[in-house]
Amino acid sequence: MKTAALQFLATPFDLSRNLETAERLIRAAAAQGAQVIVLPELFNTGYAYTPRLFTFAEDDDGLTLRHLRRLSAELQVHLAGPLLLREGGRVFNVFALVEPNGTTHKYRKRHPFLWERCYFEPGHEPLIAETSLGRIGLLTCWDIAYRDVSEPYRGHVDLLLMASAPPRFHRAVLNFPLGKKVYLAELMPALLRDRAAIDRWYLEDVAARAAWVGAPLVHAVMAGRFVAAVPFPRLSFLGAALWRSRYWPLLAQAPLASLRATFYGTSAIHNAQGETLARVEGEEGLALAEVTPGSERGRPAPSDNARYLLPKVPPQLQVLTELMQWLGGNYYRQHSRLQ
What we know:
Layout: E1 2-7, H1 15-31, E2 36-38, H2 52-56, H3 63-75, E3 78-87, E4 90-98, E5 104-108, E6 128-131, E7 134-140, H4 147-150, E8 159-164, E9 173-175, E10 181-183, H5 184-187, H6 189-193, H7 195-199, H8 204-213, E11 217-221, E12 225-228, H9 233-241, E13 258-262, E14 268-270, E15 276-279, E16 285-290, H10 315-336
Parallel strand pairs: 1-2, 2-3, 7-8, 8-11
Antiparallel strand pairs: 1-16, 3-4, 4-5, 6-7, 9-10, 9-13, 11-14, 12-13, 14-15
Helix pairs in contact: 1-3
């Protein structure tokens, strides 16, 4: 089976431009024989933290899915990519897998990362899509951290697809007025201490996940620069700087700060043994490789942690994530009803 992972920077809320970029890369991959093509997370709207995401959430017959279905039928390829969808008045981050016959499989991201919980609800079930090419499992970005997401796929899928848009928060900077800069790693020492391990999360550790599950894995990742305001700015800053009192005077200016980072840009294809077969070089492009479908129970777990499979998940990040489950959920319920 020939597979492709696409990588590019999706311009926030420039839908036509993003779909044009996606189509250009899809056609290039199909011309080289790809049968399964994976797009980065939120490839149509871009990755951002803003209530505008509610406005751009589509329904099942929205522009983006119609676009994917048309291309899938025309090119006779399986297309997959996550986007925000409204389902019964609720918003989910849905990883859609479209077959050439129009069948659409939908996996809802189960573990929103931090502030993502402000803009969509978590899903609750794994998905093994029974397709004409075999059994395909789906993962979206921060889902890779959790044992409960990947466990159902072990020995039960022929292929794993993963799409991500992860900023390198461990190397991110907060820009305050008058040129004041604070690196998140200054606020959270674990980010600095473990940044080499965190750098490996979305490449080497994804490859290890393929070996653990026992199936090849196609991973499409956003690339380029990430700039955003931080939701709940004062509370978020205080949560990060709680043990760094010398930064507390900046708390009043937190709503004026912008968060800047780069996306990982580590799109790659791995075989069932965890070997990297192809990787995108540069900010935009595609990785293309033939894989042998596999469905054997893979290697022992890469982590002894009962909850996390990723190594070195900082304790502060865990606390902030749990806090945002509550705060972000309330924000989501309030704002999603207004759209």
